[in-house]
Structure to design on (225 residues):
């Protein structure tokens, strides 16, 4: 049968090896699952047919062997009845059935081997499908975690950018403070120039206080000056 020609390929298929080599394991799993489910449907149908054929072959073999046993029993009864001619006929029929039984045995052995192979293939397909379903969920879970990690990485980049902006702001603030300090220092230097000093000295003598002048005059008089 056609499905049996695929038995060797299906049984030798290494699902894990295929997934390990796949560039996109999730897509590979989906494709493998589709293929395996299609194969499983065919295998179930063929397995049922071959198991039915095995049952028919077994039933035919059992019926033939039962008839052989009957011919043997009839031959014994005929001899016990001193009817050798009938016994010979029963033994001839037994010999014919024995030849038939050999062919039926071969047919049953082949049907049994085919049914065993189909059952084995069916069980492997079921295991592979279950494993793929399990790995599919695992891979999807990993991809979800990876996407979350990517979002976290992007947020981390934004935070780093904000930190850089804050560092730049602090740098500009430090520069502004430096400029302000330099301007204040320059203003202080300008205020302490010789011209300003003379102005301050002149202003001191220009701002006379009558009480101080009177007190100074009285002090000179007491000193005889």
């Amino acid at each position: 049968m056609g499905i049996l020609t695929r038995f060797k390929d299906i049984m030798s298929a290494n699902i894990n090896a295929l997934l390990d080599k796949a560039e996109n394991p999730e897509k590979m799993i989906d494709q493998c699952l589709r293929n395996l489910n299609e194969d499983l449907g065919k295998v179930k149908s063929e397995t049922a047919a071959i198991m039915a054929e095995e049952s028919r072959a077994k039933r035919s073999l059992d019926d033939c062997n039962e008839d052989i046993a009957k011919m043997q029993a009839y031959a014994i009864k005929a001899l016990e009845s001193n009817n050798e001619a009938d016994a010979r006929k029963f033994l001839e029929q037994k010999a014919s059935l024995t030849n038939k039984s050999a062919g039926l045995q071969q047919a049953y052995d082949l049907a049994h081997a085919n049914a065993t192979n189909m059952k084995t293939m069916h069980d492997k397909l079921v295991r592979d499908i279950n494993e793929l379903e399990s790995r599919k969920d695992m891979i999807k879970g990993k991809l979800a975690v990876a996407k979350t990690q990517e979002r976290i990485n992007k947020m981390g980049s934004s935070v780093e950018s904000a930190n850089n902006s804050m560092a730049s702001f602090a740098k500009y603030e430090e520069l502004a403070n430096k400029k302000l300090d330099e301007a204040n220092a320059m203003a202080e230097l300008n205020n302490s120039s010789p011209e300003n000093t003379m102005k301050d000295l002149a202003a001191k003598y220009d701002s006379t206080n009558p009480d101080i002048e009177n007190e100074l005059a009285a002090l000179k008089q007491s000193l005889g000056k």
